[in-house]
Amino acid sequence: MIFACRLIIFDGKGYNFLLGTIEEQPPRGDGAPMPHPFHNHVALVTGASSGIGHSLAMQLAKHGAKVGVIARRRELLEELVNSIRSAGGVAAFATADVGRRDETQAAVAEIRRQLGPIDLLIANAGVGTPTLLEPLNIRDVEKMFQVNVLGTIYAIEAVLPEMVSRKTGRIAAVSSLAAFKGLPGESGYCASKAAVNAYLEGLRIQLHGRGISVTLACPGFVKTPMTEINDFSMPFLLSADQAADHVLWAIRRRKKMHRFPRRMSWIVRLTGLLPDWMIARGMKSYGEKPPMNDLG
Ligand SMILES: NC(=O)c1ccc[n+]([C@@H]2O[C@H](COP(=O)([O-])OP(=O)(O)OC[C@H]3O[C@@H](n4cnc5c(N)ncnc54)[C@H](OP(=O)(O)O)[C@@H]3O)[C@@H](O)[C@H]2O)c1
Q1: How confident is the model at residue 232 (pLDDT cuts 50, 70, 90)?
Q2: Per the structure, how many domains does the chain have?
Q3: pTM (two decimals)
Q4: Is any ligand 1 atom within 6 A of the Cβ of residue 72?
Q5: Residue 206: inside a domain
Q6: Which domain holds residue 106?
Q7: Catalytic site positions
């Protein structure tokens, strides 16, 4: 592997990145010669009304999975399910705010009623907004923990007992490379994803030997509605389809953790070695005037 890195300062938008020249292994695709392991399996994707979750649902359907989708926006879920069905696939939807335990339980029960026992859960629903300093926007931080952390845990709760009793299943969460470094102006989001990683890691070890795999997929920047508000350069930006490819590749191989794209993952690792003053200086304008979106 060729590995040479240089520090690039994205001035104006205030981001510092270590950019690496690293031979990148693309996701090896899910079209390998083996029969597709998701065929006829019931796959449940939360946060499937847009972005990565939408691409995951479409790709799973293409691989022959029966796809259950959950999010809050009914019309978008309906559209997604209709397009899967009109292509000959099997799909069902249920609406829920995954940050609400009762709604998540009810939505998963509805999907199970329509499609059968869940073989694969991808807890993908998530929200992200900057963490402000003056004043501290605690409600936004609470919302990120409610959806990103508890939403993931509630979805797992809704499928796990059945997987344990059937001694089979796959659980995955779409976390983030942000889990690996607390960044100024993003501490709430980074902390929520770090919590997801720690939870799933512990769960994975606890489930050892029970036939259930636990996979953490940690993307860098992906072009979705979540990032369209960003007015700074997003290195190694992936499309939602590319991100979904990566996620499914990792789940299929029962990977513990997949960080992607590889070059962005190295940048995050190397950023962890930088002194605080350098990161603070590089992200000064971001920290002072972050792009704000509406958490809904
Ligand atoms: N885009 C990136 O650069 C990036 C990078 C790393 C990780 N991620 C992670 O990837 C995941 C998907 O994000 P995305 O980029 O695809 O963004 P997105 O297009 O905004 O999708 C977010 C999805 O989550 C759903 N959602 C949000 N809050 C919800 C709630 N309370 N209950 C149920 N569903 C909810 C949304 O549906 P409704 O609004 O219809 O509920 C939507 O389907 C997130 O976990 C995000 O943190 C994204």
Answers
A1: confident
A2: 1
A3: 0.90
A4: yes
A5: yes
A6: 36-261
A7: 189
